[in-house]
Amino acid sequence: MTRPKDTPPNGGEMPPRRLQPALLAELLPANVSCALERLPTADSPQLPQFQFPEEAAEVASAILKRQREYASGRNLAHELLLAKGAPPSPLLSGAKGAPRWPVGFTGSISHCDGLCVAAICSTDSHTAIGIDVELAKPLQEKLWSRVLVPSEADRFEVLGERGALLAMAHFSAKEALYKLIASEFGRLVGFREVELRFSLTKGTFTAHGGATEKERARLGDVRGRWRITPRHILTTSFWAAN
Ligand SMILES: CC(C)(COP(=O)(O)OP(=O)(O)OC[C@H]1O[C@@H](n2cnc3c(N)ncnc32)[C@H](O)[C@@H]1OP(=O)(O)O)[C@@H](O)C(=O)NCCC(=O)NCCS
Hints:
Helices cover about 35% and strands about 25% of the residues. It is of the alpha+beta class. It starts with 16 loop residues before the first strand and ends with a strand. Coenzyme A (COA) binds near residues 177, 178 and 194.
């Protein structure tokens, strides 16, 4: 019997933390490193492990689940940055929520119920990257009109359950895309401002839209990849450095 690609050989829980997990690595260019960690359930009393008091302070008033997911993302990013030779330092959030990466590096973090992922690279190879993870569930129909443009919705409507899962993959890819473009565009970009065109055979996507010529050109430079596994939807987007 073949096992699903993201199921570990023992068929049980994934190891708690993994660097370069194969499935995520496949969705990223070779010089981007990545890691994932399984998160405890929301009601777990497990305390977050912070590496820097400044990071603990940033989420001190948040609920335990949020503290754990924040700490997990930071710890994965620290591990990847250390492996790339970056000196250890707190990774605090900027005013709009994006982590402030050390000079010379960029990255992205995402969490969903039970899982946290992070990816890091040098700005010599990529000016920005964006990643997102969601549970592999259909996107509720009431959300379609908020997330999808009509051409996207038309493509999925005829596909039944598979279409609803692809709709969720679009939601995820737009969040990954937002993390990529947010700082360069300097504004909140709405879900319906962008049309994604997925290749169903290659697992890639391109992005189309933008309010100005410059934004349209930048969206045209985006490269994206997506994958739906039995448990998760993973999406990535990246800009190669010129
Ligand atoms: C910011 C946003 C994309 C985060 O997505 P999410 O599914 O809520 O949460 P995720 O767990 O996947 O990602 C959260 C992480 O994103 C990162 N993040 C937050 N704001 C960010 C921003 N402005 N730019 C880049 N990364 C950002 C952070 O690392 C955060 O984790 P942390 O706070 O623990 O460091 C989402 O909340 C949002 O505001 N979306 C609206 C805009 C949008 O998606 N438009 C789509 C059209 S392009």
